[in-house]
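[Automated response] Your request has been received and processed.

Submitted sequence:
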Amino acid sequence: MDEAMLSVEERAEKIRSSLDPNTAILVRIMQTSQISNGFWMGIPKGFCVANMSKADNFMTLVDEQGLQFNKVTYLARKNGLSGGWKWFSEAHQLRKGDAVIFQLINIKTFKIYIVRKDIAAVGTSLKPAENLAKKRPRSTAPSVVVQDCDEVEDSEFLTDIKNYALPEHIRSNYYRLCCRHKSYLHANLVPDLDCNSVTSMISETVKIAEAIMSFRICNTSVDELADWKMILEEFAQLGMNVAVMISRLDEMLELSERVADSKRYGEFVSKPTKAKKKKSILLKWRFSSLKVPPKGLSLSSEHSKQRSQIILKRQ
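Generated structure:
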């Protein structure tokens, strides 16, 4: 039968039946609430109970082109996708009546297939990179993933940062940092940030990343780590994808604080107590030539007797 004659449900079923039968698959026809306003992607409770995590977590959505959308919030108690689903929906220009096929690859990953209600709309959705250029999402949106990275910056990366006056070594190090994180860290910055601000944020992020990599607990204070974390948290509020770096700083802070606590404990244990000091002064006086005890040292009759015996033996 001609594809154009099939309903969206029939075309979606055709794709669903071609997928691995050993994976959990869900077909949803988009409604207004799922693609606008609240952007709530509800999932049937039975599907969630049988296949999904029992606790809230982040999901990764992978589209047919292999592009990954990370940190899409799954709310276990409410049985649905919330934060991050809006960005996926807008990036793929989902419309009311479109069918979305969710194939659960693992407990944290959905492979997504989209079937358009309007056949003429097939293939007209913007590419994710073009979406980024047209509209920067808020900081809650997931990051676009860099699939492959070479040592030399690719043309897409150079085009994306051409407006930022980054020194060559900062640009090169930032590219490698993006490769390690598999995403352009600045991709989700809030709109209307001026180029100078973004340039400063990228430069500071690179410097902190380099400091983290060269971290030595004996050379870095807790205050420095706390300052780095505070800076990155401010960047994160503006949409910079630095969650991994903040998490690493939390680990470093915890380690540094444990070491600092152990040092303070060691100093406390080794610190002479008042009794130890008195005993030390007493011993020195006994075997000295002084006849009068040091100021502040009160002696018992036994101590005086021992002192007299020592002086008589010397004579």
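Summary generated for your ticket: Confidence is low (pLDDT under 50) at residues 123-148. The radius of gyration is 33 Å.
If you did not submit this request, please reply to this message.
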